[in-house]
Design a protein that fits this description.
binds magnesium ion, binds alpha-D-glucopyranose, globular, 19% strand, 2 domains, 5-stranded antiparallel beta sheet, alpha/beta, 22 strands
């Protein structure tokens, strides 16, 4: 039997913004449980919950201060168990977010570690002496701006933080740290979770010699982080050994999986995805930010898919177009679209035809757009620090919109932690539910089509050479082929088709006398073994 995760569609839930059940303006576990029918009704296989653990919320839960408890904002362990039970009843697997590259500075481990150079946890974080002139030990920057080093007067040393000052990096070179983190993962496996999303999996290890990173001459953006090639602060070869330990742990249990988040760009990201998923003893799959980027060309999507295939023929990718860290794709790619709904439908058709596992982000099934916020509404630290050049991630994290007629579109009866604005509320589930032509209806139809097509679920993938703006690839499984064609532009395109074929599924195109006509952002699935020409 093929493992369930290989062709799975995972729906990412951002707990703060899914459904508030207790009237505090913040989404919670009980709220998620109430809304699981919507998720199951889409026809997806699993949910991924962004962090729900005890946290001071400096980075909205990506700063954990207790790895084996639920933050009171979200509920209790009993609420979590009820959520898992309901999800399983509905046939949904549950994946939780493990943020173990760093903890919160309020974690008791760090509170102890920072006290002195000789306490029992002195070596649990990455500590280094200053240079003779008092400056940090090397040139490593933080992803969120400024140096990756923060001074601790009690130890007269610096500690490493790849992200916020409040997110000190755990020292994975220390076997006791590895053992303890693996035990926290066991805690959740025993509680019945089906898998883990591994936050910043390529940041786990740092160069033990703390060598300077070399410059990256190509950088032009407003962030300081891009000025270097991060060869010593992340992507370290030592990581593979730890990934194997994690795999051995999850393999002790039935049918569990891990998806690693590779925080990097370009060819490096693709190479790491391949390296971390090659063979059967590392991660089950990885995702990177390559398809979460502004690029929207056939060549780019082909490069991503072929890159992982070539880098690791037995590796496995997980692709997504949106998540809680990037501008929603309907807004990000709007320059390539006739209208937002056409783009949203095409994105669904394209993403759900890609090989591997697929991640959808809450609200994308509504064709949701990025929320425009003003400075006073922001919560995301990098945006608060570098506004307006850095817009931050709040605009993709605003609440889910359920009911057009209810306050805050049904998300909460209180003041929501981020606002629900009119353009977003106009896409509420209640409105789209009643409309057979809605983006929501298209997602359901395409998800169900994908389920019905073994070629889309497990097929090999080959790309014919066609000029932009057409992306085409053939998926083949056990002798049955389906050719997937997408017009990545706002003007119509035509192709010549040779061979016996029919348009399949919810295609948005027309075919007659060997001419395939794709409207703006059109898409087609063509049966059989055919040839395409521009
Ligand atoms: C990942 C998360 C992001 C978080 C960062 C630090 O990239 O997706 O939201 O800020 O890691 O944990
Ligand atoms: Mg609440």
């Amino acid at each position: 039997m093929v493992e369930w995760w290989r062709d799975a569609v995972i729906y990412q839930i951002y707990p703060r913004s899914f459904q508030d059940s207790d009237g505090d303006g913040i989404g919670d576990l009980k709220g998620i449980t109430q809304r699981l029918d919507h998720v199951a009704g889409l026809g997806v296989d699993a949910i991924w919950l962004s962090p729900i653990f005890t946290s001071p919320m400096k980075d909205m839960g990506y700063d954990v201060s207790d790895y084996t408890d639920i933050d009171p904002l979200f509920g209790t362990l009993a609420d979590f168990d009820a959520l898992v039970a309901r999800a399983h009843e509905l046939g949904l697997k549950v994946i939780i977010d493990q943020v173990i590259s760093h903890s919160s500075d309020k974690h008791p481990w760090f509170a102890e570690s920072r006290q002195s150079r000789d306490n029992p946890r002195a070596d649990w974080y990455v500590w280094a002496d200053p240079n003779p002139d008092g400056t940090p030990p090397n040139n490593w920057p933080s992803v969120f701006g400024g140096p990756a080093w923060e001074w601790e007067p009690r130890r007269r040393q610096y500690y490493l933080h790849n992200f916020l000052i409040e997110q000190p990096d755990l020292n994975m070179h220390n076997p006791a740290v590895q053992d303890t983190l693996l035990e926290t993962m066991r805690f959740w496996l025993e509680r019945g979770v089906d898998g883990f999303r591994l936050d910043t999996v390529n940041y786990y290890f740092h160069d033990a010699q703390l060598r300077d990173n070399p410059p990256n001459p190509d950088h032009t953006g407003p962030e300081t982080y891009g000025f270097q090639r991060h060869v010593h602060s992340k992507n370290r070869p030592e990581n593979i050994g730890f990934l194997k330990r994690m795999r051995a742990l999850t393999d002790e249990y039935d049918a569990r999986m891990m998806v690693g988040e590779v925080g990097d760009g370009g060819q490096t990201a693709i190479d790491i995805m391949a390296e971390y998923t090659a063979g059967n003893d590392r991660l089950h799959m990885c995702y990177s930010f390559e398809m979460l980027s502004p690029e929207f060309t056939a060549a780019h999507f082909r490069r991503c898919i072929e890159g992982v295939q070539k880098g690791a023929p037995d590796g496995h990718s997980c692709w997504s177009f949106s998540n809680h860290d990037v501008i929603r794709h309907v807004t990000r790619w709007q320059d390539h679209a006739g209208n937002p709904d056409a783009l949203a439908r095409q994105a669904a058709a394209m993403l759900l035809s890609f090989p591997g596992t697929i991640c959808l982000y809450q609200g994308e099934e509504l064709g949701q757009t990025e929320t425009e916020l003003v400075y006073e509404e922001l919560t995301d630290p990098p945006a608060l620090r570098f506004w307006p050049e850095v817009r931050g991630r709040d605009g993709c994290r605003t609440p889910m919109v359920w009911d057009a007629d209810a306050p805050n579109a049904g998300f909460t009866t209180a003041d929501p932690w981020l606002p629900v604005k009119a353009p977003q509320a106009s896409r509420a589930v209640t409105i789209q539910q009643a409309d057979n032509d809605s983006v929501l209806a298209a997602y359901r139809a395409i998800l169900s089509f994908r389920k019905s097509q073994p070629a889309l679920r497990w097929g090999q993938t080959e790309f014919p050479d066609l000029p932009e703006p057409v992306l085409a690839f053939r998926r083949t499984h056990e002798g049955t082929s389906l050719t997937c064609v997408f017009n990545l532009s706002a003007s119509p395109e035509q192709l010549t088709v040779t061979g016996d074929t029919v348009l399949s599924g919810p295609s948005h195109a027309s075919l007659s006398a060997g001419r395939l006509v794709l409207p703006a952002n059109g898409f087609a699935w063509l049966s059989g073994n055919i040839d395409l020409q521009a």
